[in-house]
Amino acid sequence: MATWPYPRWVAHRGAGRLAPENTLAAFRLGARHGYRAFECDVKLAADGVPFLLHDATLRRTTNGHGRAADLSWSELARLDAGSWHSRAYAGEPPASLEAVAAFCLENGYALNIEIKPTPGSEAETGRVVAEQAVRLWRDAALPPFFSSFQPVALAAARDAVPDMPRALLLDSLRPGWLEEAQALGCVAVVTAYPLMDAELLARLHACDLHALCYTVNDPAEAARLQAIGIDAIITDAVDRFSPTQGAGWDRPAP
Q1: pLDDT at 62
Q2: Which of 3, 39, 54, 110 has the lowest tally of Cβ within 10 angstroms?
Q3: Residue 254's pLDDT is what?
Q4: 65 annotated active-site
């Protein structure tokens, strides 16, 4: 099976919990900790602009209210997405996918785009995000890879841009999950870390699927996953794990 082409340590939502998630400030902080691969959540504004946000609503991580999908990007861009985290980030705006693409391409960073549709917009979000990503990364040596818990969104991304790599996200091993990943043409499966063991990893590799885990913040769990041969780890703990130590994969930082 082909070697996993992306860095093995992936900073979750930019820098996990150390900065306001899914903002450029979080990406910059993750980069300062040595990370060269990032994960983020992408959904659509009311006018179809892809931007970064995990939740369907704005309340938890901005000073806005209601559904994010009901506002245009110009309205979303004026929100404060930093004050909820700490005073140091007051005024930090939400990030568009275009801005994140520019940051990653300028610095040679890899990106895992989790397609995170507002409920009811799965197919549209998958299609639009894929079309915008292929435009933004058209000259890149290494494209981003898509992931999603929503098979409909991944299918739409596949149909729009067949050559962009895809991964199925799983929080449980529901019946038919492997066949689903194969039917979607995925290159990887990303599971919650408690689900992953040597048997599951071997099964994935036997099917030419890479194995990744989220969200791994415990050094003992990271060591266990590395020992069984996991392909990549997604973490919030960018200050705890050094992606450059031991060629980036041997052991967590002390």
Answers
A1: 98
A2: 3
A3: 35
A4: no
Q: Identify the CA nearest to 61 among candidates 39, 43, 86, 44.
A: 86
3-state secondary structure (DSSP) of residue 63 = coil
Q: Helix, strand or coil for residue 24?
A: helix
Q: Answer whether 168's CB lies under 8 Å from 154's CB.
A: yes
Strands 210-214 and 232-235, sheet pairing = parallel
Query: What is the structure's pLDDT at 176?
Result: 98
Q: In this structure, what token pair is assigned to residue 22?
A: 């899914």
Active-site entry in 12, 33, 85, 210: 12
The pLDDT assigned to 245 comes to: 58
Give the model's pLDDT for residue 1: 81
- Residue ranges of the chain whose pLDDT lies below 70: 245-254
12 is catalytic: yes
- The model's pTM is 0.96
Q: From CA 9, how far away is CA 6, in angstroms rounded?
A: 9
Quick one: pLDDT at residue 246?
Answer: 41
Task: Count the Cβ atoms, other than its own, within 10 Å of residue 216.
Answer: 28
Q: What is the DSSP string of 135-202?
A: HHTTT-SS--EEEES-HHHHHHHHHH-TTS-EEEEESS--TTHHHHHHHTT-SEEEEEGGG--HHHHH
SS3 96: strand
Q: What was the pLDDT predicted at 244?
A: 78
Cα 5 from Cα 205, distance rounded (Å): 15
User: Which segments of the chain are extended strands (E)?
Assistant: 9-11, 37-44, 50-52, 110-115, 145-148, 166-170, 188-192, 210-214, 232-235
Pairwise CA distance, residues 104 & 152, whole Å? 27
